[in-house]
Amino acid sequence: ARRAALAGATGPGATSDGHRMPLLANIGGPADVAAAVEAGAEGVGLFRTEFLFLEDSARAPSVETQVAAYREVLEAFPRGRVVVRVLDAGADKPLDFLTPGDEPNPALGVRGLRSLLKHPEVLRDQLRALAQASAGLPVHLEVMAPMVADRADARAFAEACREAGLAAKFGVMVEVPSAALRARSILQEVGFLSLGTNDLAQYTFAADRQVGALSRLQNPWHPALLDLVAMSAEAAAADSKSCGVCGEAASDPLLACVLTGLGVTSLSMGAAAIPYVRAALAKHTLAQCERAAAAARATDSAEEARRAAQAVLSGE
Ligand code: PEP
Ligand code: MG
């Protein structure tokens, strides 16, 4: 009831002047689907598939097990969009059969797509399971790879998707600064981008996301991060492709307005944040969001950026 009482708390995401901003849910498995549907998510912008693999860290789950889990999620969003991220093992999510145990810097090590390219059978089985799970469903399935650094990574992932006979659209996460810097070349290989601002912040500021003492350097409001978001969104727009945000940044209502102003095309977040972000967007025009974004980028710190955006959005 409290959520329903929020202004503009139902319906699709949009600014007050009707610029559409699809609001999608981040989910970690079928158990999160009900909350996403209840919050009015227009689909899933990040389905983290690690849960399936963490149950038994010695081997990958069978294709059949994967098909059942994926189908449960895909069936919940009949005509919606569901973006599935292939396994992101390593660093904070180590798996015995994939992750080297002796890395000096696991966050800079063999993780995400890097692990999958070393174990192509794991990627192949996951992509085949997704192809089977989506067969015959009206869902708009999109599949993306984590920890993509450059065009060669994007090409390797695209080839694996084609070889697995996946009819879905495939894309990559932008969570390594090199991918944002070279977004234009990466888009020669794939159909969309999705900004993982948690890792993008970690790698931009060289501050481990698991080290609490570095929290000052993990703030997505920092103009350095906003610049990388803008760069990625501009590259996607120039190619008529989408560039969403699926990191924690999307769940901050004020920052969601700034991200909209920077040109991102969808926002994906934990279900609980969706009504608040929807309400914030509904209060401002796209032009106001763009002015807030420009004001934030003109500052030199996360704190100043937030204050500048706040001033623009509350002063009008
Ligand atoms: C991110 O890095 O922003 C992201 C969405 O992925 P994860 O948090 O699962 O690493
Ligand atoms: Mg990440």
Automatic annotation (TrEMBL):
PEP-utilising enzyme C-terminal domain segment(s): 12-284
Protein name: Phosphoenolpyruvate-protein phosphotransferase
Protein's gene: ptsP
Keyword list, A-Z: Cytoplasm, Kinase, Magnesium, Metal-binding, Phosphotransferase system, Sugar transport, Transferase, Transport
Role summary: General (non sugar-specific) component of the phosphoenolpyruvate-dependent sugar phosphotransferase system (sugar PTS). This major carbohydrate active-transport system catalyzes the phosphorylation of incoming sugar substrates concomitantly with their translocation across the cell membrane. Enzyme I transfers the phosphoryl group from phosphoenolpyruvate (PEP) to the phosphoryl carrier protein (HPr).
Keyword Zinc assigned: no
First and last residue of the signal peptide: none
Family assignment from sequence similarity: Belongs to the PEP-utilizing enzyme family.
Catalytic activities: L-histidyl-[protein] + phosphoenolpyruvate = N(pros)-phospho-L-histidyl-[protein] + pyruvate
Membrane spanning stretches: none
Parent-protein start and end of this portion: 241 to 556 of 556
Compartment(s) where it occurs, according to its Swiss-Prot or TrEMBL record: Cytoplasm
Cofactor field: Mg(2+)
EC number(s) given by UniProt: 2.7.3.9
Enzyme class: transferase
